[in-house]
Amino acid sequence: MHRACTLLLVVLTLLLPGMIALIGSAVEPTRSPRHGIVVAVSPPGAEVGRAILQKGGNAVDAAVATAFAMAVTYPAAGNIGGGGFMLIYPADSKHEPVVIEYREKAPLAAHKSMYTKKDSRYSAKAVGVPGTVRGLALAHARFGTLPWKDLVLPAVKLAEEGFVIDAPLARSLNWIVADSPRFPELRRVLGKSDGSAWEAGDRLVQKDLAKTLRLIAEQGPDGFYKGTVAELLTAEMKRGGGLITTEDLAAYEAKIRRPIHGTYRGYDVYAPPPPSSGGTCLIEMLNILENFDLRKQGRFSPETLHLMIETMRRAYCDRARYLGDADFVKIPAFLTDKEYARRLAQSIDRHKATRSEDLAQDIPLKGEGDSTTHFSILDGDGMAVANTYTLEHSYGSRIVVRGAGFLLNNEMMDFNWFPGETTRGGRIGTEPNQVAPGKRMLSSQTPTIVTKNGKVVLITGSPGSRTIINTVLCLIVNTIDFDMDLQAAVDAPRLHHPWFPDTAGFEGTCEYPETVRRLEAMGHSLHGTRQGDAHSIGLDRKTGKYIGAADHRIDGKVSEF
Ligand code: GLU
User: Fold this and answer.
1) Distance in Å, CA 467 to ligand 1 centroid
2) Does a structural domain hold residue 200?
3) Which protein residue has the closest C-alpha to ligand 1 atom 2?
4) Tens digit of each residue's pLDDT (9 = 90 or more) over 140-197
5) 444 pocket-lining for ligand 1 (C-beta < 6 Å)
6) How many structural domains compose the chain?
7) What is the CATH number of the domain that holds 453?
8) Strands across the sheet with 546-549, in order?
């Protein structure tokens, strides 16, 4: 008897931790923790992702946890009140890469002429139906291995107990608080309670946000789209004259979409389809550039930059002409076709800039801040996640939902607000991206994964509105054409031509004055600029190991184990 009891006790002692783990978790992690990397702009956000990987979660678990954490630790763009795109490249070849598309959409009461020139970008009318929480839930349901709660609770803790802010966040918070006199709730939630300025080392506590995140942890996405939070959000809309109703919130769905897939000099490139313009434009541009031997010309020679500007000009003109939400407009398949790109490549004069006006043809011509954030994750099994999400502008509409503690996007700005008004200054008014009820606004977010023979070689993406696609293009050209190692590829000066305005932003104007002079002699206009940060992961050719590169343009953090 005594011996049997001892045996039972031993068995129970051995089984108990496992039983407790089973009670606490719906699904057991399927992988053992090996080397994993998270690269993100927010150090505490990246740390949450790393901890999840180390606990045995896969790259998607880490991405979901990082995204929730950054809604707390990087309020300028990390969000639950916005939307984005998550590109997932599974570790095994049995599964296809997919995009979890969680872009915001127009409320049902929205219509094509709803904006006047007087409408503010920082108003309830500029808010699109948020997609982030449904998107993260869809990614988790499809690919996650750890329980949902375990992925949301780290964010709850960061909001409830607060976290120590660093100098860049202190600067950012001081700026937004001072710049938002019309937004008392933002000032209350993100300002220091005694009214003084934030300093590095202070602790930011967000109690209301913690309550909202706890509801999401406990109830899943319905904790956001239905019940108390939904009521608080719609009350905020009513106060500010916004259009989002409880019906809009309840009806929001994130979607699983097939990425745009192209090839570039033997590599496979995956990036998001519409409603992002990112994948289509990126593949169109790579297809054009494949017609030229860039390597022979040198990375920052006038010849290479000329070809890149001409390529960007053409693809961005097509972006304006054809792209919008594919659930509403028909997008021509030829845009990512190699033969179409060959014809566009032939239309480039090797010695002279094209006038953007000459490409406009049927588009009648009349007379952006970097506020998104991208993170890259790779787990020990080789599953990769590239996630870009946004509130549109820095701190979005600046409207914090009273009682719920989170910022709302101003993503409606990404529609072509004024039908028919395409201007030389860069406003686009073409049909495919005009407002319609339930339609998603066109994005430039381009979370991208490049592979060779099925193995991931680059995970990248960036904020920066329309510059995003060209930032990713530069990264790919640096890596594939010029064999730069990852950090050099991230650091190298970037280039952006948006079709209109007909001028190229170039980060290397000081470093390469002779190149600029020769480009100007060819008819280009160039100006100094700074493009968005591209926190990336890449396969190091020399060592065969994966490395992370945070972008020094804004700092950021490589968190690995
Ligand atoms: N809302 C923009 C987009 O989806 C991104 C905003 C930004 O990065 O500045 O393309």
Assistant:
1) 9
2) no
3) 465
4) 999 999 999 999 999 999 999 999 999 999 999 999 999 999 999 999 999 999 999 9
5) yes
6) 1
7) 3.60.20.40
8) 260-264, 267-271, 448-452, 455-460, 536-539, 546-549
